[in-house]
Fold:
Amino acid sequence: MTPDEFRAAGHELIDWIADYRERLAERRVGPDVAPGEIRAMLPAHPPSSVVEFGDVLADVDEIVLRGTTNWLHPSFFAYFPSNASYASVLGDLLTAGLNVNGMSWVTSPAATEMETLMLDWMGELLDLPPRFASGGDGGGVIQGSASEATLVAILSARWRSTHGAVNADGDTSRLVAYLTAQTHSSIPKGLRVAGIGEDRQRIVDHDEAFAMRPEAFADAVTADLAAGLVPCFVCSTHGTTSSMAFDPTPELAATCARNGIWLHVDAAMSGIGALAPELRWVNAGLEHADSYCTNAHKWMGVNFDCDLYWTVDRAALLGALSILPEYLRSSAAASGAAIDYRDWQIPLGRRFRALKLWFALRLDGVDDTISMVRDHVGWTQWLADEARRDERFEVVAPHPLNMVCLRLHAGDSATDALIEAANATGEALFTRTVLDGRTALRFSIGTATTTRHHVDAAWRLLQQLAT
Structure:
């Protein structure tokens, strides 16, 4: 492809993306295909000759879109929001065009310094405690996902609990971590990667609001200390994926402070709510946290991947992750004047992710996002009230923000059938969860193009299909 061909194709692709998004509401939310169907439509072997760009776009229309779940659809109420503003898409396009590997300051000073600044900007916008700012002992970094951020937090906790040295044989058998049945699956997965197996993962009891019981956490820590074990890490979730539960971080922090336990707060989706001043209660207890993350690529509108991760203990993070061969050494990093972000993550290489955040903040600002968040929270409360008025439904979990969990009084089978029937229509998309052994439908309102009309239509669909 020549530069002129690239220009022409680029214009055509931008037009295609804009057209796709403008007409998205006309499409099914979820695809109607069987496993293997998309692959069967594609050639079994690599092409023997090149084709025109128009032919590739035609295959996107006929094949790729047929098997695409439309996460940006206004009637997408499944999983979690995955917004992507036009501004952030342009920033990501520039990232691809520059093709920078920002693994260290010397490989791209702009990539490093803009990322540090973007995390400080976001810390200010979210009203995070000053201890997370880059000027102190901590700072922020953009991770690919909350799962990666979680693993970084766990490894930092492990480093601190072992005083900088895991036993020579890699033994982590005395380290203990604490979570609830509502904690995201990335936490036990990260613990497993870090060598903390299921036998050292304590599932702490939760209350009727699905939040961790602080007294149960304290009792578990006391028991483990008595057994000669080392309490190492606890995950306090602010807005669980399954039920939107908020763990009591201030109360958990007291036990952590007494016992040197790393307190990580996972606010993957809900943390963005703090952009609205009246919702800053979502930050409760962050002044005690060792690390914190939230995803700009969910409720905010920066396209995937853009997890915002902060720590107050840069020394533990670097101790856990910094390995410095000669070919990566630099005087800038050695002097402490520059950050090498390769040491703040699992892989070596890293994209120039700060550009899309910078584009979004400068071209879009946050006022529209704040208005969107407020609308979503208000519509969720309306939906919960409507569900309570329908004697066939019950609301089974608190709904302080933008998700409500519903189920049919008729039971699990009826609720499962309702979810399957609603999704099969293609008019909306929901996901299922299980709360204390009971099936529930998660109605997550978070897409930027969603209006009250779409929420109302989805609720009417559920009412029509309910038995």
